Amino acid sequence: MLSVPYLREHREEAIAGLKKRGVEAAPLIDKVMALDDERKTQQQAHDGLLAEMNRLSKSIGQLYKEGKREEAEEKKAAVSALKEKASGLEAARKDTLLALQEVLEQIPNVPHETVAAGQSEEDNVLVREGELAAAPNQKKPHWDIAKDLDILDFELGNVLTGSGFPVFRGKGARLQRALISYFLDQAQEQGYEEVMPPLLVNADSAYATGQLPDKEGQMYTITEDQLYLIPTAEVPITNIYRGRLLEESDLPRKHVGYTPCFRREAGSYGKDVRGLNRVHQFDKVEIVQLVHPEHSYQVLEDMVSYVESLVQSLELPYRIVRLCGGDLGFTSALTYDFEVYAAAQDKWLEVSSVSNFEDFQSQRLNCRFRDDNKKKHLVHTLNGSALALPRIMAALLENHQDSHGIVVPEVLRPYTGFDRI
RNA sequence: GGAGAGGUGGCCGAGCGGUCGAAGGCGCACGCCUGGAAAGCGUGUAUACCCUAACCGGGUAUCGCGGGUUCGAAUCCCGCUCUCUCCGCCA
Fold first, then answer.
1. Residue A76 contacts strand B, CB under 7 A
2. What is the CATH number of domain A121-416?
3. N or C: less crowded end of chain A, CB within 10 Å?
4. How far is the CA of A9 from the C1' of B9 (A)?
5. Which nucleotides of B are covered by protein (CB under 7 A)?
């Protein structure tokens, strides 16, 4: 979330920026200021009272030592009286703090200056486009080819779990694993440290990366233990740094992780749900960086280039768009989406989202670094899918098909052990 | 899951209910010393928020977390949590 000092010092900038999201921020910011002022006043009163009580209590000890019992008893009564007053003040202060928190949680991140105003994906800006390869001579949707080749079973998933839980099998499963290994190996070459995090996280973690409270309905919940299935590896990986104080020389921290991701996708029934286009459990390799604020936008571009190189290496037609204000995630300041073209469906499928959150996440994460002067600053966090598997699989099947089956891209062959399906 | 032991500052380690944000040591920083270094000596060395022009000074809170007792708690009581040891169960 945004910090109060930021909102104080950059009020107009924040209002203008948030307008690009269609958010009317002025009333919210005013409320933040008012609550913060109230909080300060209350703290002053409360602290003063406590100081008085502390002074008296100390003197009581002294009085007892000197044997002045009566005087001590008098003071005891005085402190007791103050105590009641103090607890009232404290309750009020807590309420104010909670109210302040609540308002802050409603304010999304301020979009970067390059973000266009806009309401939906219609307003996203095309950044660049890969070459469109020659269309395959056969155009079966991936769910049909997959069935023909017996590499993917949607019906079986229905039996085991429910819709949106496909079962990969045979060469399909092998291809899936090849993609994961390939993506992990590539990221390691770029200096990302691999991690295998837990797939369940607690509420603190979900809160720090912004899944709670805004996106609670999107996560599967283990109510008995108050845990959440991760919707993305971003959550556990970023939370490695929750509450941490780093040295400037520790930066950047670069991590890559493969995890299954679980999403309820509530409210999206009927929208592009065929085949692998939208599923409840999917595999994804995620890259995460924590960097010095001065470098975060350079790093964002680097991450975009890296993801682009992955998509290119898979010989898929792609395009990169810069999300407009309205399409931007709550916590992001700037996001690039990667879409690949699925030839048979004649559709663009989102396969990666690369974002700079600036210090919006680290504020909640409370992850800072210390510079040479021992001053502490919030780090900037970034992440990106590199890549999300199902739609990559869909695009591979649709774009690399011929009448005999599927041609496996060159880079994956060392991993699959076969060049055709 | 059961039994026991324990969680104190960057680390180690003291701490009777009162003047303890916390002895001492190590480490670290700066200074002195030295041709230079080591040793030695000296000084300093937690975090957050509030007051303040101030990274000077002052206030409040923090000794795993949360409650309670008390005029006053690192010190007493209760709950939780984590670590270690033993037992049970188990991929």
1. yes
2. 3.30.930.10
3. N
4. 35
5. 18-19, 47-51, 59-61, 71-72
Helices (H) and strands (E) in chain A, counts: 13, 18
Residues 6+ apart with CB under 8 A from A376: A245, A368, A369, A370
CA→C1' distance for A55 and B19 (Å): 11
Asked if residue A60 keeps its beta carbon closer than 7 A to nucleic acid strand B, the reply is yes
A381, amino acid identity: T
Mean predicted lDDT score pLDDT of chain A: 89
Q: Is A381 helix (H, G, I), strand (E, B) or coil?
A: strand
All CATH 1.10.287.40 domain ranges in chain A, comma separated:
4-105
Alpha-carbon span A348 to A272, nearest angstrom = 11
Q: Tokens in use for A227?
A: 């845990």
Q: Which residue has the tokens 């099947």?
A: A397
Distance CA A367, CA A131 (A): 41
What is the tens place of the pLDDT at every residue in A199-215? 988 888 888 888 887 77
For A301: left if phi > 0, alpha if psi spans -120 to 50, otherwise beta; the answer is alpha
- Count of residues for chain A? 421
Architecture of domain A4-105: Orthogonal Bundle (1.10)
All CATH 3.30.930.10 domain ranges of chain A, comma separated, are 121-416
